[in-house]
Amino acid sequence: MSFCGELRLDGKPGSTELAATMLATSATPAGGPVHLRAAGPLAVAAAPGPGLGAAADLAHPPNGLLAVVDGWSTGGPGSGGVSGRVVESWGRYGLTCLDHLLGDWALAVFDPATSRLVLARSPHSMRRLVVHHTGERLLFGTEPSQLRAAGIPLRVDEAVLAETLTRDLTSLHETLLLGVERVPAGHVLEVVPGRAPSRRPFTSLLSVVPPLRATPLPVAARELRTALDAAVHDATSRASVAIGLSGGLDSSTITGIASRLAARDGGPARVVPISMVFPGRSHDESRWVDAVEEHTGTAVLRVKPEPYNWDRWRQWTADTLDMPPRPNLALAEAVSAAARQEGLGVLLSGEGGDDWLTGWRSHWPGLWRAGRLGPLWRQTGAGISPRSVRTRLAVARHHALAPFPRGIAGERLTLPWIRPRRLRGLDLDGRFAAADAADAALFRSYDQRERWRLAVVRSSLPLLDTARTFYTGAGVDWRHPFHDRRVIEVALSTPGLTLYRPGETKPVLRAAAGDVLPESVRTRRGKARFDLELVDAVEDAGGIGMLAGGPLVEDGWVDLGIAEAAWATAVAAARDGRMPPEPQHGLVALWQLVGLDMWLARSGVRL
């Protein structure tokens, strides 16, 4: 599904012609006819994506609200779709109805009586809404190319560019395009002519504070399994679905639950796990995939990805106005292509398991402050020798007494290949301090704050924006049961004492999904790394030296000599199967140079 539109703030009527022009630039292929609606100052264009059925999810009863939705929720077409349910409940509950809307969605609701437009996204939504606001009008859409078609100026926001280069973004709403904002997940943006747009969070999930007292593991596992079963059921109900199966714990759990549900009434009509294979490579996960296939009895479709196609992704960047996909994401084009060849419009992922269920030590400061030293000490390990005790005391001191960490690495990153003079005047320190203070004020405990990991979420936004366009452009609806509201609520309500176990990640998930997982996957430690795919892709294009003559080097942002030395060090470490000496100077940070340089060179955005 893709939608876009214009809200006039100067009293003029909205233009459906402009809305149609904007929609025509969408990367999402239309799965049905374009729907155009006008209501006074508002004009909207919408078209269904292949993964969401043949009808655009748009409701506009006579003389009533207009609602348009990109996404899915429980209920289905028989109940009027998501937009129909929003229209029905809006008059009684207003904005609060959004907090009870399950699924993954981005929507616009317009009230002609007040000319009030509300834009919103579900909590931790993978969908997107972007806006551009002037005194005369507000433009909105699910893809940035739609805003470009409406004639917005294409200038880079240099502060956001600097933060993107270091992967230390300080805002959920700013984008690389100056004047273009995203509606953050779990937020609403309200626009009324004559007033400045108002943005605020709406989700009550932000009020869930993890308890300190432990819950028995079997109890927590049952609660999580109930939520996961419901999430997978609602994401697949009566549909035929593909699942991106890597062989890791998260995607294998989704595959196992979906396969179990397929045998029940109301479950998915057909389940097709699709796995990438890399014969002879260290990151080939075939043995894990084989074990899942044997345990579930569900045949797995195996695909071998093609090498990174630089010409294709350069053109894709020019067309979509998004950063190019990282090579490990581009590999998944083989998965989405296989799903479409099988006639499957829905693709499930294991995305989100790491975010909510890994289990961290972030509850330790709360235990220390509450004087619960016995449980804290037991979570430092089991050794009682003098050396072990010293080690356990050092771990406790570091994680229970340390101040709140800031950013991804605990402080604002300064990468050696970025020229300091280019950062002067951008007030990055001030922006970072303001973001840190806002994060601290939003949460009631250190544990609660670290569960949301907003610094990591912000750093991932450019990648997630790219991934969203990557999958919708392939004609599949990308869904994530681990980001279902019910699963998030269970994860946030599970005590850290239960989620964390020394030497074992995700103990609650392993217990919750034990019956649908082969033992080898249930007890698996670690996961495959795709660093060599990134190395091979960049090396095939000439290495990091490809930046020579590009906008980042020419405009003085990057010292190419330092970047090349860092690249050589990171590549040597990847080929040896180890981390680079400076982990924050690794391949992912260096890829940001490549991706941003390509974006600046191909998108038409001016520095």
Written overview of the protein:
The protein has a six-stranded antiparallel beta sheet. Helix content is 41%, strand content 14%. The mean pLDDT is 92. The longest helix is centred in the middle third of the chain and has 20 residues, at 217-236. With 607 residues, it is of the alpha+beta class.
Compile the SSE list and pairings.
Blueprint: E1 2-8, H1 16-23, E2 35-39, E3 42-47, E4 58-59, E5 66-72, H2 81-93, E6 104-111, E7 116-121, E8 130-133, E9 137-141, H3 144-149, H4 158-166, E10 180-182, E11 187-191, E12 198-201, H5 217-236, E13 240-244, H6 249-262, E14 270-276, H7 286-296, E15 301-303, H8 310-320, H9 327-330, H10 333-341, E16 346-348, H11 353-357, H12 364-369, H13 373-378, H14 386-401, H15 428-442, H16 446-452, H17 454-473, E17 477-479, H18 485-493, H19 496-499, H20 507-512, H21 519-522, H22 531-540, H23 551-554, H24 560-575, H25 587-602
Parallel strand pairs: 13-14, 13-16, 14-15, 16-17
Antiparallel strand pairs: 1-3, 1-9, 2-3, 4-5, 5-6, 6-7, 7-11, 8-9, 8-10, 11-12
Helix pairs in contact: 4-25, 5-6, 5-18, 6-7
